[in-house]
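PROTEIN SPECIFICATION:
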Amino acid sequence: TESLADDKAENIVTIDLASRASFADRMVVATGLADRQIAAMATHLLEKLAAIGVKRVQVEGAGGSDWVLVDAGDIVVHLFKPEARELYALEKMWSADLDEPV
């Protein structure tokens, strides 16, 4: 989440999935206000993950999308524009496991 905060992401929330899902242990949801900001957030996150040795990372929705997904295996990061975040409401779907906002 530090990388996202450095890129001025808003409303960064982490959700513990360890006991509820098999696809990841943790989900991070954050908001970016513009395409360029979200693209920069994803790029910087990929750079940070590579620097710590995470090799299997997939990105979906890059390039002008309202929603970019960065799948780093045990951690999945969703980067939304505000309207898409409200529409998909992932926090509500997983609300029982919300951690404190960062």
